[in-house]
Design brief:
Layout lengths: L6 E2 L1 H7 L4 H8 L3 H8 L7 H11 L7 E2 L4
Antiparallel strand pairs: 1-2
Helix pairs in contact: 2-3
Amino acid sequence: MSDPEVKNRIKVLRAEHNLTQGELAEAIGVSRKTISTVETGRFTPSVTIALKLARCFQVPVEAIFSLPEE
């Protein structure tokens, strides 16, 4: 279930919070591979994962994920 049109800022937010993919994965209860595939846009996360990421980074989901401008 990939959607190349969905952009994300996970890598930037991880850097701002000084987290590795593994640390972020552990914090939200998923595998490091899940973080990697979402971060690179190969996989669009479930609403649950998106909300857990938002909670972890303490930002709205829209601050992490966006659609390109039309």
